[in-house]
């Protein structure tokens, strides 16, 4: 009993000692919180005063805005990156578990951009010290007379991009361990430039790198107005009354591009927000390893109806991502998160049939996808990007970039550099160097033809 009493007394003394430590820690935390509140209040006052003058104000902190902030900050410019929601939110187009990178495009201006972007992805990862891109091969499959596939083959040759063309089932089976089947009259193309990007992680990486180079980042900052302030200053006002001044401004607000640009200039830019669905399907037992990136499974695009794209099994064990390259028109501020527009069941059935056509017996298609996630695209009628100066009273002091979704995330690093160059130097030097004519991305194309480059 005496021994037990001594142990109990010792435990009580230890508890008292720990409680003193806890009290000191709580007091310290309270003081820290009060200091942080004071700093936050002072920072808010500084922001509202508008005394700071930034070289570049970038509105929209998705992949394009974050890459642009990084590139401008690397040049030693004073950069402000604004985001209307929390950083790394899931309300736009720059989030989720995977995006693909590929250079197989039917339009000639995209392959050189992807090749350059691939190099810049590697540079950014090296600087960050970790990877957001897993390299794979890329695979395209469709009817042999499909114009897009024929153009892809031509553009790969033009850009010295090594490719393999398969027009027999035996060739294809040898390349991908029987994962794919080639229907009669179809062909497929394989290139080494492919891969899977982790989007949220990638956006975070570029924001961190931008901050490392001196950029200022502010989230929960909804822009309400952009106006000229004298001859050389752009004044950005927020919904909560703050104001920021910059010499140049870049707009990368994704699905909100149409609304923001119309509020600034009255111009109706045809960038349509689309509610998109991301599907994950169950892989049948025994095929999980062979359909992973480590097992050599590629990123792929299916040029049938409906058009599909997919990634190796990476994000969720036993599941593979195969989704539509399309969506349903929506208002980015009034999305229906539960449906795809009313006809998604029929499109899902068609997708299941197409999966069985080219990957028979590998995926459980009868019950449809086992997981569905909502995303949002913003696309132009011709599916080409908008990268241009706003013009009018803003001249070359405001740069607009939008309409990237569906095939834009992979281009983030090269587009970010181009936007930075346009804002700071007044021209896209990188585009000139890699042989891309920026006229194809101009806003004026819709004045001549509502469908743009089509």
Automatic annotation (TrEMBL):
Q: Which InterPro entries match?
A: FAD-dep_OxRdtase, FAD/NAD-bd_sf, MTOX
Could you tell me which residue ranges the FAD dependent oxidoreductase domain spans?
Answer: 55-422
Statement: the UniProt record of this protein carries the keyword Oxidoreductase? yes
Top-level lineage group: Eukaryota
Pfam families from the UniProt entry: DAO (PF01266)
Give an example GO molecular function.
oxidoreductase activity
Give the record's keywords alphabetically: FAD, Flavoprotein, Oxidoreductase
Give start-end of the signal peptide. Answer: none
- The coiled-coil regions, if any, are none
Q: Which cofactor does it need?
A: FAD
Q: Which family does it belong to?
A: Belongs to the MSOX/MTOX family.
- Name the chain's protein: FAD dependent oxidoreductase domain-containing protein
Q: Which organism is it from?
A: Dendrobium thyrsiflorum
Source taxonomy lineage? Eukaryota, Viridiplantae, Streptophyta, Embryophyta, Tracheophyta
